[in-house]
Write a structure and sequence with these properties.
globular, 7-stranded parallel β-sheet, Glycosyltransferase_grp1, Rossmann fold, 6-stranded parallel β-sheet, hexosyltransferase activity, transmembrane helix, transmembrane
Length: 400
């Protein structure tokens, strides 16, 4: 009998960023592997609903023509806010609207609900859906919450954080299976669920086979690239320092950035007349990957808080997918990936001078850049292809 799955997620095609792309891949590949899959999501809104009025983001005709299996609920919020309280109300609105939708489709039985977190509140609507549709729940953890909230120093109410930790523990305990996108999450989660026996499966972000290419076409100028979120976790002060240093060394720096600190970064560039930094508006995944392929080196940052040592940023996987060596200010899981597979160099995030020195060194060493690029291609094909890794999720779904 064909298995049926309902995916519940805030982020889904055409939303830019790792989360939206991840859920799109899961949806498409489960259906291609004869698992009848639907999605319950919201209207695209991150980082701004108006962004998706541009038709270039709707670049997958297969999904554009999909009307039955993609359920999009409307939301009132027009823009992703930097205010923690505004975000909480935003997440609560999503939770309520998801519960209403689940009630409407309650007669449609699912074998599994796959729910993606954060935000955590969507998970609790999934547990209500579990009761309504007589299904099991696969919890997909993309970030440790509320630790990540503390890591960006966005909230400091001890009583509220204690309550959030209780919700987090219950979330892990009530799930029938757990999927993580970073190996660094596993110990944290097992400590929370203690001796409960349930599968915890590592499925990283990654490319589809058609996104991998052996060809790279460089501009005449040596260039460095940064793509993705510029928010509280990405350490904007060090990104500014990198931008200034690259400008001083006459190295082109391409940035495709979005997020709550993107405006601050743009103001800094204008104030300091950093004309060597080229800022691009948020664009499609395909165009972002094209820019990465045209760049000689890519950079990534995370701030120093301990929780971020467990994270494997999606942008790093995108960089190595494009065979673009990485120079990063990260530690823990991300640093191990970069250093162990020799796809670049990882430094303590405060070591901006060492990062700049390494970029200048690599600029003069084309053979080393070629070696790193070849290592990128090798590790992506071995560990990160979606067409291969989806089998782990299928194994959970078909096990019962």
């Amino acid at each position: 009998m064909t298995k049926k799955v309902l995916i519940m997620t805030q982020n889904f095609y055409p939303v830019i960023g790792s989360a939206g792309n991840r859920m799109k891949n899961i949806f498409q590949l489960l259906n291609k592997n004869n698992i009848e899959t639907r999605v319950l999501t919201i209207e695209p809104s991150y980082p701004n609903k108006n962004l998706y009025k541009n038709k270039e983001f709707w670049d997958d005709e297969e999904l554009n023509n999909e009307t039955k299996n993609i359920i999009r609920v409307p939301i009132k919020n027009k823009k992703f806010s930097s205010s923690i309280f505004s975000r909480l109300f935003f997440y609560l609105e999503i939770m309520v609207r998801f519960i209403v939708t689940l009630w409407k489709i309650r007669k449609e039985k699912f074998d599994y609900i796959l729910v993606s977190t954060p935000p955590i509140f969507i998970v609790f609507s999934a547990f209500i859906g579990k009761f309504l549709t007589k299904s099991k729940v696969i919890l997909e953890v993309r970030d440790l919450w509320p630790d990540s909230l503390l890591g960006v120093k966005a909230f400091d109410s001890r009583l509220t954080i204690r309550f959030f930790r209780y919700l987090e523990r219950r979330m892990y305990q009530k799930a029938d299976a757990i999927v993580i996108n970073s190996k660094g999450f596993e110990k944290h989660i097992t400590d929370k669920i203690r001796h409960a026996e349930k599968p915890i499966v590592y499925i990283p972000n990654g490319p589809r086979e058609n996104e991998i290419t052996s060809n790279r076409e460089f501009d005449r100028e040596f260039s460095v690239v940064y793509t993705g979120n510029i928010g509280l976790a990405q350490d904007i002060d060090r990104l500014k320092a990198i931008a200034k240093s690259l400008h001083e060394h006459n190295i082109v720096f391409n940035v495709i950035g979005y997020g709550i600190k993107a405006g601050d970064f743009a103001d800094y560039l204008e104030k300091n007349n950093l004309i060597g930094v080229r800022v691009y508006k948020p664009t499609t995944r395909k165009k972002s990957l094209d820019l990465i392929r045209q760049s000689n080196i890519a950079i990534a940052f995370l701030n120093d808080e301990g929780v971020f040592s467990t994270v494997l940023p999606g942008k790093i996987i995108d960089y190595i997918t494009c065979k673009t060596p990485v120079v990063a200010g990260v530690k823990g899981t991300a640093a191990e990936l970069i250093n162990n597979n020799k796809v670049g160099f990882a430094f303590e995030s405060r070591d901006v001078d060492k990062m700049i020195h390494k970029i200048i060194e690599l600029k003069q060493d084309s053979n080393k850049l070629k070696e790193l690029a070849e290592n990128c291609e090798k590790v992506v094909k071995q560990e990160f292809l979606w067409e291969t890794n989806i089998s782990k999720l299928i194994g959970i779904i078909e096990s019962k």
